[in-house]
Write a structure and sequence with these properties.
Elements: H1 29-36
């Protein structure tokens, strides 16, 4: 429908933190992670990251 799925997201993560992103299908979980990794352009706002970041996408094991 052309609306943004991610708005007004603010969070802090510190060394050693384990953060889980959960929610229903279409809630924007993958979009959030792709924004943090730079795979999706940011239209407004900013991502500030100090240090490293990693994530493991969910994929079926075959």
């Amino acid at each position: 429908n052309g609306s943004f799925c991610l708005e007004n997201i603010v969070f802090d993560a510190h060394p050693g933190d384990l953060i889980c992103i959960i929610g229903p299908v279409g809630a924007g979980k993958s979009s959030l992670l792709q924004t943090l990794t730079g795979e999706i352009a940011i239209f407004d706002g900013k991502v500030r990251m100090h240090g490293s970041f990693c994530y493991v996408p969910q994929e079926s094991c075959k």
